[in-house]
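We examine the record.

___
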Amino acid sequence: MKTFRGTLALVLAIITTAFFLFAYAAGAQVDVSTIIRRSSEANSRDLAAVPEYDNDERDRTKDGDKTYAVTMLYGSPYQRLIAVNGRPLPAAKQKEEQEKYNKAVAERQHESAEKRSQRIAKYEAERKRDNTLIEQLTKAFDFHLVGKSVLGGYNVYVLKATPRKGYKPPDRDSEVLTGMEGTLWIDQKTFQWVKVEAHVIHPVRIEGFLAEVEPGTRFEVEKRPVAKDIWMATHFSMRSNAKVMLLVPRKGEEDDVYFHYHRADNAATGK
């Protein structure tokens, strides 16, 4: 089961990259530098605020339809099952899940400093890895402004990203970028990202894993405001198409919705 913060971190990493990519459209608009600076500030605030919010998350995959309450608990997130197929759990199951949560609270309250450090370090490593991916995305694509539009009630800039010729990925995580292109819709008022879409346009072999990511792999993510100057992901969908051992096809789909954002309890976050 993929955690919300893991998914959200990856999604936000890709979204945040766009303000860097926009730099390559220099000269397209007089205020390009302002857009880049404002976008940087907005997305930096969002990324920094992720651990400060709890939320609900509904995951729909081939394995089922489950909804979780995601709670920031002493430095890393905890997922508590609250619904299946859009229906609240029966009373007995609710009690069982609450008992699991209470047990997790007790364990984290009394865990050793070493164990807590390891748990939080694992979560922070995921966030750091995403920041590294951002740096590679700035080098992997050429980005250009193609126009303005209205999306979801927001006046947006529309930007296209295409693979940069000659880009050499330094690690396995970055290899898939060589075969992707995408579109981003940027709110003209807040410089936040309303939507991003990316898809694989030609097969990419992941060296060392004997895997190949193929056309048909795509994702979309949407963001909306949760506070005056903070936006978070509200929808994420992904369709994957790959071959493992370069022969065995592996396909998957998921559709996740994030809602009911609210400030995390400082006591539970350990602050």
